[in-house]
Specification:
The protein is of the alpha/beta class. The protein has 2 domains: about 60 residues, no CATH class; about 50 residues, no CATH class. The protein is about 40% helix and about 15% strand. The protein has 5 helices and 4 strands, in the order ααβαβαβαβ. The strands form 2 sheets. A two-stranded parallel ribbon has the order 1-2. The longest helix has 13 residues. The mean pLDDT is about 90.
Length: about 130
């Protein structure tokens, strides 16, 4: 739902979203379907939560693409991931680009949403 794009289709999506006719902007989904090879698989893990327009179903059908979707199974992966972090086999700090005080949350959201200052992940410190 947070994919950003350019061009006429993206502008059309923004207008439709603004008036409540579309809830998602399927830029990344469109690109994945168009880029996928014949017989390939497109995996959508995340938050497509509502209505999208202008999805290239012709490419999806003609290429025989398989689509896998769903939310992350947090309860299945949480304990093994935390254990790997505790054993220092995984270092999650590599994605932290900003640390901000809790009172700076509004500013943090703004730089994250607009991808300013190469923002990837913010840790809020109370």
């Amino acid at each position: 739902m947070e994919a950003h794009g350019t061009g006429l289709l993206f502008a059309f999506d923004r207008v439709k979203q603004g008036v409540g006719l579309e809830t998602d902007i399927p830029t990344a989904l469109r690109q994945a379907l168009l880029a996928c090879r014949k017989g390939g698989t497109v995996s959508v893990a995340g938050v497509y939560a509502g209505f999208s327009d202008r999805v290239p179903l012709g490419s999806f059908m003609e290429k025989g693409i398989t689509m896998k979707t769903g939310q992350t199974h947090v309860h299945r992966y949480l304990r093994p991931l935390l254990d790997a972090i505790a054993r220092e086999r995984i270092d999650p700090t590599v994605v932290i680009t900003h640390r901000l005080a809790l009172e700076d949350a509004a500013h943090g959201y703004e730089i994250f949403e607009s991808k300013k200052d190469q923002c990837i992940k913010i840790v809020m410190q109370p």
